[in-house]
Amino acid sequence: MALETEGLLQELRKLSAGVRRRSLRMVHRAKLGHPGGDLSSADILVTLYFAVLRIDKDRPDAPDRDRFIMSKGHCSASLYATLAAAGFLPEEELETFAQPLSRLSGHPDRTKTPGVEASTGTLGHGLPVAVGAALAARIDGAAWRTFVLTGDGELQEGSNWEAAMAAAHFGLDNLTLIVDRNMLQQGDATERTIRLEPLAEKWRAFGWAVREVNGHDHAALLEAFGRLPFEPGRPSCIIAHTHKGCGVSFIEDRPEWHHRVPTDEELEAALLELERAAS
């Protein structure tokens, strides 16, 4: 079992590095995007799609599938790169990111892209949609689960907290929220914009069961996902501590990379750094 687990972890690390490289190329080619958040969320997305979600690339609309909602839809490049790696999209289609008539819009569109559950990007919408999905499964007596990934700056939107109250009220233990807690948002640190801490205590006060993990540690993520639901009758919240721009030294933890596009030279340097780290 230990060897099997180590093999899975090695594969997840390799896949995450590939998602980071592809998302940077996509942003560079399109001349738009949000590379900082793409890089911070890559490990979470890869762990979900390759080790947690009950999904089938050949039946993306299967009624019994788990639902995943990318609430931080501005980080669509990492989502599309993950979907392509998982077989939902042809790898070559990534080259059309954010181009006219492409299925891969700057924000995910559920009417165009296989594997996308909700059209997102307007911050604060993903969690309310996920609560509705989880409640629908409860009403139908269905076994599928709902997962939603939000940004941390996004939690400054009040709609999230209305949804949090509803999820706890209805006891939606089939719902899991993952917060990409990279501490930065557009323009500055979250704590200098509108302070979120103590974030874990806030979620507990709203009736959620909470765990905090290193969002770049695939083993820690797997361990947390393997314990879902954390408490019967309560929705689960995983606060994944990450670094914006993770994996590229000159992007990491720098707010200006929220939506900056790398130059040719920066892209080359970033890809080289990611390749060396993965070898």
Q: What is the CATH first-level class name?
A: Alpha Beta
Structural class: alpha/beta
Strand coverage percent: 5-15%
**Structural Rg:** 18 Å
How many helix segments?
9
CATH topology: Rossmann fold
What is the domain total for the residues?
Answer: 1
Oligomer: single chain
User: What is the averaged pLDDT score?
Assistant: 96
Main β-sheet, spatial strand arrangement? 1-2-3-7-6
Number of strands: 7
Anisotropy-based shape: globular
- Give, in order, the helices and strands: HHEHHEHEEEHHEHEH
Name the helicity range.
Answer: 40-55%
Intertermini distance: 24 Å
CATH homologous superfamily identity:
Thiamin diphosphate (ThDP)-binding fold, Pyr/PP domains
Major sheet: 5 strands, parallel
What CATH architecture label applies?
A: 3-Layer(aba) Sandwich
The residue ranges in which pLDDT falls below 50 over 5 or more consecutive positions are: none
